[in-house]
Input
Amino acid sequence: MQVLTSTSSAGFGDALAAMREGVITRESASTLIRAREGDELDSLMAAAAKLRNRVNGRRVTYSKKVFIPLTNLCRDYCGYCIFRKDPGQAGARTMTPDEVLGVAEAGARLGCKEALFSLGDRPEAIFPEMRETLARLGHRTTLSYLAEMCERVLNETGLLPHANPGLMGRKDLETLRQFNPSMGLMLESTSDRLTLPGMPHDNAPDKPPSLRLKTIEEAGRLKIPFTTGILIGIGETLDERVDSLFAIRELHERYGHIQEVIIQNFRAKPEIPMRDHPEPSQMDHARTIAVARLVLGEMNVQAPPNLSDDDYPFLLRAGINDWGGISPLTPDFINPEKPWPHIERLAERTAVEGFELIERLSIYPEFVFREQFLDKSLASRVRTLAAETGYAKTS
Ligand code: SF4
Output
């Protein structure tokens, strides 16, 4: 890919004009993502919003969920992570089955339909304490314990599990597929540079991009509706962002399984190694979302509202069509200092922008009625919760 370090108005205009003709290349996306504040950014966002409106009309979706942090022990040490803990560190925790089911049941009573399992990656590989915990729970691996919890949540509460446990091999995916109508793994970035000394993934064995692409590809082979995304502002270049978006697009073109792409912005926190690293500006986030929309076309593009504080409606203007999971019960354990907005308030602010907020399931509507994308045993469970449109039944 040609690396561009600056752009000109003429170059930007040509790239935008080509995009309007339906042509977007890595090179033109690299030009567009350098949009300058003012006319360039406005026209880029308008083009992205127009494409979103053509595909999604005035509908913007969210999923009503509970967040289940099954374990926050993790063998990786990502520079931006506040979630992970070592055994013995204050707040280190692996949830018991009773705790998991208690949260899921409370969520079900509040009308939640998704149980998002987010957890550290393979802690048993480096922590004997985790191996002992798992042995007490009757398991050898965290992923095996996760599978049992997904099965029990599904059977005992009716919530649909959506597992987001880090890297998974084919066998793990096959097992989890039986209880998860959809799953996820953030690609974060295709940049190998981020694993070099001093970079955010220099002590994160599960973050080499090739490994993450492999899991996403394996999910595609197994026809698992899959959530992925990029994390922006962690030291990647604009061109590397574009590369990451094209890598996701190429996987979807091959397997048709990417149900949503999250464009998540790095937020600094006093407790993390990257506490002094600059956060991406709102303008930078907006132009990345707009380019993501133009590269990804009809795919679902999401940005979490709570990571943009009170300014989040700009995300709609940049081209997203989904707010992600919103919980009326549990905090965002990955960003605990950033509460989700109340669903009523989210609906009001979405309406001010001219959109209707619609509840979806953890699995997107376009996958709900496609036999090959759902394990046979799950199809009826999912369809009980879905309206004819594939969105969530709300009454
Ligand atoms: S971001 Fe995920 S993989 Fe990285 S340290 Fe945190 S929990 Fe572990």
